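Q: What does the assembled structure look like for these inputs?
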Amino acid sequence: MAAAPVWSVDPRTGKQREQVAVEATAQEVDVTVRAAHEARASLADRAVRSAFLRTAADQLEAAKDGLVETADAETALGPVRLTGELARTCYQLRAFAGIVDEGAFLDVIINHPDATATPPIPDLRRYKVPLGVVAVYSASNFPFAFSVAGGDTASALAAGCPVVVKAHPDHPALSELVAKVLRRAAAVHGIPAGVVGLVHGFEAGVELVEHPLVAAAGFTGSVRGGRALFDAAAARPAPIPFHGELGSLNPVVITEAAAAERAEAIGAGLAGSMTLGVGQFCVKPGLVLAPAGAAGDRLVKSLTDAVSDTEAGVLLDHRMRDNFIAGVAERAELAEVETPVTPGAGSQHTVSAGFLTVAAEKLAAEGAYDLLLEECFGPVTVVARYEDEGELRGVLSRLPGNLTATVHLSSEEADGEGRGAEILAELTPLAGRVLVNGWPTGVAVAAAQHHGGPYPATTSTSTSVGGTAVERWMRPVVYQGVPEALLPVELRDENSLGLPRRFDGRLER
Amino acid sequence: MAAAPVWSVDPRTGKQREQVAVEATAQEVDVTVRAAHEARASLADRAVRSAFLRTAADQLEAAKDGLVETADAETALGPVRLTGELARTCYQLRAFAGIVDEGAFLDVIINHPDATATPPIPDLRRYKVPLGVVAVYSASNFPFAFSVAGGDTASALAAGCPVVVKAHPDHPALSELVAKVLRRAAAVHGIPAGVVGLVHGFEAGVELVEHPLVAAAGFTGSVRGGRALFDAAAARPAPIPFHGELGSLNPVVITEAAAAERAEAIGAGLAGSMTLGVGQFCVKPGLVLAPAGAAGDRLVKSLTDAVSDTEAGVLLDHRMRDNFIAGVAERAELAEVETPVTPGAGSQHTVSAGFLTVAAEKLAAEGAYDLLLEECFGPVTVVARYEDEGELRGVLSRLPGNLTATVHLSSEEADGEGRGAEILAELTPLAGRVLVNGWPTGVAVAAAQHHGGPYPATTSTSTSVGGTAVERWMRPVVYQGVPEALLPVELRDENSLGLPRRFDGRLER
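A:
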């Protein structure tokens, strides 16, 4: 059987640009994973790791023009957005380099012997070690930041884990280019090229998660694809951690007082957030709970005006376009669902943004309207109008897990009057990031960031953005009674590396 | 259908002592889980949680005599060991109370807005919140420390999670007594009794892990039972974290130089460790790699003498006794396996300790001898004699994951001469705890402790003993742009609670 070709496709025309590669066979996946496994010793030195990450950022920046051009040709996301995304990606690589240098992520804990404890405590010295080869499944919608050189790869390398990336079929040419840049950066530091493997093809992705030498996986994508891989990871003879970011509705609550205070600004802000990047963000607000009545009507009017002004856009691929058009049509057909601006097909290759409205009470019980509680990828949102707090709470109680949950409060509510704190407490169980008077699109790279949430937002309790993302790829080991001469330098009393640590109960920083 | 009775059985006689309860129906499991879920708000206040944990310890100590008597009647572990285990359990409850008070486990990270970041960072404040109801599966071999009031329960309550415990059928009467003590302690602090639920029965255990309101599970037990529950947790519509400690061989390497230096002491120490608690520890050394030749012969001789002197003991139940007798017989039947002291049946209700020897080369390739690389619960170990380093490394490369790995070194090797560091590096990938010149039995409760390891030692990268065990039951949440007035007090700038935290990159302790 001939190897299946991997084509780069222009979503603006639907035409094939070039054949980039062929899909990897099981044997090729095996070779790639073994090469990554062999490369792990080259990442043992933290100083080498952080230098590698910084060189990777430098070289990605140096290659910017060609990378952005290829990315735009394959994704139609536009050079402005893609230039920004590449800058974010480089910032992220450098942020992880800083984390590696600081060393707090090693989580060093030292206990000297304590005969007064029950039972007595021997000499115990614990830190975290890398898990091994990490499989990274790239996202369609972030060709830089959640792909070959994205957060999963950056955090895995920071942890000391080589990666094998499964390229997303929406940007195979860019994936090859970025992998080459990473390997060039690795070579500068004497790290073998195998440290960043790259494979193409659906079957190769399945082989990858089942490979005995793959120790963990990171995934950003759909519920269906992510769940299938999660299931495969769990069904292995030796299961592995699978950190998948699968899907999110990202509910937004608008209080009556907030709408009364600034319906127009909220409507315009919402339009901007839900249509940003042609609605192709995992944190796109997909369900908005707005009050019934006059203030809510003003909000809908403002949203209508702003969304009507939005130009049609090109989605990442034609399958997504088909799914979007079918998805919004199916939702719009539900009885008593209205479409103040009808989303759907634009020209031959584009889609136009729109939104649906529905009475919140329709969502309060299981039934046909549950479709409105499922993510629909693309520039559409559902505005559910609630009559009272009971209806609002009823809808919230039916939501699956989310990456984000947002509430818009009036100035007085934000100052602590009214139900602001209560609503925050109600939203917290639903999501990993809770916002007040903001929009969920835009996920900052920061130590405090948490990009994750209850299932299906993520398949674990971890984050794929921010400083703590590195924790996903490590496991603790404790050394008991190991003589000073044999201890890893990180665990010696003298702390010549100046690591933050817990030392006989005291936190040292 | 009548509810199946749950009997307390005396393993010293095999006779039923009393009917303790009946197995819980699906409906009873549901009621118990819902009661736990309703109790979660009562754990929101950290001060209440730590006070509850301390009261629980006080009241368990106050009830000591009755508890130890019942425990001994059901497990035959003896009053000395059980009194010590209860003391350990109370120490552990208080240790977690201290962790709750300190608050470092909340992992507070605060980022003020930073316009210079790419993309700009908004106000982000992150900490960890409890996951919800935790299902705890009790162990047979630790009726106190890994059961109703054990490490999973203590760490879950510390995290703010109510628990529903699945009682182990080997000590149902004790389980009821301990649950009552915990509920009395809860009542002292106004916490509803539902905060510690208890169910009996195999089917109830399956219902529990599948219940939609159960948010995570902790398990200590066999590979077969643990894997079945892990699979059920992963197959749920919304999968949950399953922290299972399943099985471990706990390899021990004796270097040639160590054997030459102190073969007799090592043999005697090994005999003590492998027969401690009638060999019923998850960290029992189950495979010992000893050198061929004269020094190794001395070690085997010393082990022979010491094990021969060990009195027969009662295992936790008769099924275990049957499995032990069958398991050692099957192993002893392998060609060229010798039994310097033959393990097996003692009197009608006891077993006698013993050990097997085999040439290490037999274990180097897949085949019938793989049975010797599987845990055999009870007082038996396998001594594999290696001719050279190649054989040693060959066996190590074939081992599954372990809770512990141990090496005995000579004084010079411990001082850094020879292959000590190299062997430590080879053992580290195999286990969660690596020991030099000690024995793995005895798991201290300490901040640095790690009781876990690569599968099947555990189904996750977490620990079930030690301070970081609390992390298993929490997930991070970040608040973005939340006004001071609405922020949880833990996340405000002023830090009135004095929490250790990361504040704009700086570690504050």
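Chain B touches chain A through 82 residues (CB under 8 Å).
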